[in-house]
Design a protein that fits this description.
heterodimer; A: 179 residues; mainly alpha; B: 170 residues; elongated
Chain lengths: 179, 170
């Protein structure tokens, strides 16, 4: 199958090889991925809370979003690069992992929500920019955004627990704390 | 230390956390969301000190907006972190990254609180309100909370990061 051979090529690429063989690559890239994702969530939350009319209500919406979304996009770019490196290292495993697929769906949903907001609701922003409570469509977009991004983070963490090995310790196992 | 970990691991509460498959990933997810709030709050406060965001607001207003979120998120982060330690004591206590992270969290929390005590009531608005030391401290706090995140992930790769047997009780 075309896709499978593409995944195999990706997994055989030099960056993927580096990720698997360099002893510090995985922790540093994963750590940066978590930092980037945490920044995406934290900055988007500020914008979403303004959309919901819950915080920063005395500041114009566009002022809040213009300041924060630059950081969001920078962090998102970093998350994509580090995520792509992690994916390449074990492309086949990730591709077959349900949590990974659901995470991609949640990301897609977050992106669609943002695109719809951008192309429809935001067009009329001049009418509600300084209002403490934005219109219903904006509030719905803010709430959905929080839910989708929380799902992305949970599903991302779930991948690590379903990636083909089980962390559960059998009841009768003797655990050696001395290693 | 590892004897304590073994005892903790055997307690009924720890066994419960280990037995239910979704508890640890859920706790870790909440933990990550909370550090996101703590980190971004520090970033916004620091960018304000540097004159990059919310320039029309006083420090008092910016502090009043973000410090409570940061404080609450830090408390939830500590609670979920504590539950993760109870669930996987050996993994945490044997990791140098864990102890380094705990040290940085203590410095970060007290440093942020000290920053708030020093400038929290500042009502002035406009550029160049902060001395170089305050700007440096603000950037330092971002770096520190960022390092907390990196060390948090490094716990799972402690031997790869620091080598084996770096702690006296391992």
């Amino acid at each position: 199958m075309e896709l499978m051979s593409l995944l195999q090529d990706l997994q055989a690429s030099a960056p993927a090889e580096w990720m698997r063989t360099s002893v510090k690559a995985m922790p540093l890239v994963e750590g940066t991925h978590v930092l980037a994702a945490a920044t995406v969530f934290g900055t988007i939350l500020i914008v979403d809370l303004r959309l919901l009319g819950l915080r920063d209500v005395r500041r114009a919406f566009t002022r809040v979003s213009d300041e924060m979304l630059r950081l969001t996009w920078g962090a998102f770019g970093l998350a994509v690069v580090t995520g792509a490196l992690m994916f390449a290292a074990n492309a086949g495993t990730y591709y077959g992992n349900t949590a990974f697929r659901l995470k991609m769906l949640a990301l897609l949903a977050a992106g669609l929500n943002m695109a719809i907001f951008q192309h429809r609701t935001l067009r009329g922003v001049a009418a509600w920019d300084v209002n403490a409570t934005p219109p219903r469509a904006a509030r719905v977009a803010g709430l959905l955004s929080i839910l989708f991004w929380l799902s992305v983070i949970f599903l991302a963490r779930w991948i690590g627990f379903t990636k083909g090995y089980d962390f559960a310790v059998p009841d009768d196992a003797e655990i050696n704390f001395q290693f | 230390m590892m004897a304590f970990a073994a005892w903790l691991h055997a307690t009924a509460f720890s066994q419960m956390i280990q037995a239910v498959r979704w508890i640890i990933p859920l706790l870790q997810s909440i933990h990550i969301v909370m550090i996101g709030i703590v980190f971004v709050s520090s970033v916004v406060i620091a960018l304000h000190v540097l004159g990059r965001v919310r320039a029309e607001e006083s420090f008092q207003a910016v502090w009043g907006r973000f410090a409570p979120w940061s404080r609450t998120a830090l408390v939830v982060m500590l609670v979920t972190g504590l539950l993760l330690v109870v669930g996987e004591p050996a993994r945490e206590f044997s990791a140098l990254s864990f102890w380094l992270k705990m040290g940085l969290v203590a410095i970060g929390a007290s440093g942020t609180a000290a920053f708030g005590r020093r400038y929290g009531a500042a009502k002035a608005v406009g550029a160049a309100r902060f001395p170089a030391s305050a700007r440096l401290a603000a950037v330092g706090l971002i770096v520190l909370w960022g390092a907390v995140v990196l060390l948090g992930r490094a716990i799972a790769y402690d031997v790869e990061m620091w080598g084996a047997g770096v702690l006296p009780w391992n």
